[in-house]
Structure formats: C-alpha cells, structure tokens
Amino acid sequence: MSPSQTKGGKVPVIEQVAELAMRLSQRHLADYGAARSRHDFTQRQLMSCLILRAYLKITYRGVLDVLATSGGLRQRLGLTDKLPHYTTLQKFSARSQVLAIAQKLVATIGQSAAAQTPNPMAAMDATGLSRTTVSDYFCSRRGRRFRRWVKVSTVVLCGSLLPLALQIDLRPTHDCIQARTLLAQAQGVAQPNRLYADSGYDAEWIHEYCREHWGVESVIPAVQRRADGTIGGKWRGQMSAPYLQKSGYNRRWAVESFFSALKRTMGSALSARRPDQMLAEAALKVLAYTLRR
C-alpha cells in the first residue's frame, strides 16, 4: 500500500499506523534508553519507524526516504526537525527488547479487542517465515528439500482476528514447546470461552492448564498413540469427533486466516540475516499487520 493510499477517504492508512504505534508505545517505552544518551530521538519514535519499515516492506534507508518526502508522517512521529540515521534504526532493531516490546503492544491491542467482544473465542497455531526469498521450487530443483525458517506462534481472537499472544523462534520445533509461553501470555490478556488448536498441541498438560488454571475450555483433536486404539488422559479422552463438532472446532480457521492475511500483506520472507534481527523483523511484521487492521 502506497503512502498516499487512504482508508475511507480520510487519514492515509500509513499515518494511522504511525499514530497508533506512537500512542501504544507510550505505555511501554521510556522516552530514552539511557540518561546520558544524546536524546535526539525517543524510543517511541525509533520503534514506530521500525514498524513503518515492516509495514512498507522496505529497507532502513527506504523508510527514511519515505519520511523525508512525507510531512504528514513526520508530524505523526514528531520528527519535524531531523531524521535519524539508518544505522540508528538498525542498531535499535538489534536490541533484544524489541521482541518483548512487540509482545506487550500485541497484548495491549488484544486486551482491548477482547473487552469489546461478547463471548470471545480464541485459536492457537504457528506458521513459518522464510529466511530467504528463494522459491521452494528453486530449492527443490537444486536438491535442497529442507529450508530453515523462523517460527511465529500466536493466539488469535476468532471474531476480530487480532492476536492475544505472540512468540517467535529461530527454528521449527514442536508446537507444544511454544504453547506454555503462549498460554501464559494470553492468560494475562483475556479469558475467552474456548481455545481451539490443531493436533500439534495435543497434550494433556495443555488441557489441564487451560481448564484448571485459566478457566478456558480447550478443544484440541487427540492423536491416537496407544496400540489398543484408546486415548489416555482425562481431557484428551473427551476429544471425540462429536465433541469437536459440538464445540465449534471449525472456528479454528480464524488463526489460519490471520496467518494467510499476514503473509499476503506483510510478505512471507525476512530480509534480516542476523538472528537477533530476524526475531525483531518477524515480530514487527505481526505488529505492523495488527496495527493496520
């Protein structure tokens, strides 16, 4: 979407994203990272610039070029006097706190959305963002069947398709590894009536956490692992096909829809090469898309 494109014929969408980024960041970021820093730019301004970079899918230099030609954007960010150097943005994105900041902003948005949704339902799943723009077809032709990718796990509200929790990992792992962190984040944000997840999250401890500690009905298909065909566990044993249908398991499509729109809008490949910046870029993609919605 170009900087001049508008939503409803009013304020350009990109300016709305910038304004939301500045307003939400105020709760979680001090003005400056160090008392003895130069205090040229606030942390909110730098974070908002990174969000715009992810939104526009451009480089650090590119986002500064856009700001240089857009007085409206500079005004929204409070950058009327001068702009940061591109290396300032690059160094800020390499900070380990960027992922934590993005998680807090996502939680703030999710909490507001959940409060406005009657009888909220949630869905949990994960997807991958490629570390390269090289196509799968090219890799298969070269005999490279497996490519590493950055794993994005989230809990999404089924109605608004806004995330409640976010976790990023540098490599693909079993879904249950991220589940504990996701559930803890989501529990601190909202309490939906049900949580839907696919069979990758089939574990008795996840049911116990949701139902006994969070007070949320977990709906997860059980995988048959016993030779006699039975399914063990108090809660896993209840996950029959009729139960899944009665509980509205088909609403799990919400998280798939979120990932599909995220990749179509923000892109499915990362441009960063350093591990810390891959984590930051993946988190900023999710955050930028969430603000755009």
Short synopsis of the structure:
This protein has 293 residues and is an alpha/beta fold. The chain has twelve helices and five strands. It has two domains: 13-93, no CATH class; 106-270, Nucleotidyltransferase, domain 5 (2-Layer Sandwich).
**Domain module count:** 2
Beta-strand segment tally: 5
Beta-strand content bin = 5-15%
User: Per the principal axes of the C-alpha atoms, what is the gross shape?
Assistant: elongated
CATH fold descriptor of the largest domain: Nucleotidyltransferase, domain 5
Computed Rg: 21 Å
SS class: alpha/beta
| Largest sheet descriptor | 5 strands, mixed
Q: Which architecture name of the largest domain does CATH use?
A: 2-Layer Sandwich
Helical stretch count? 12
CATH class of the largest domain: Alpha Beta
| Helix-strand topology string | HHHHHHEHEEHEHEHHH
Low-confidence stretches: 1-7
Biggest sheet strand line-up: 3-2-1-4-5
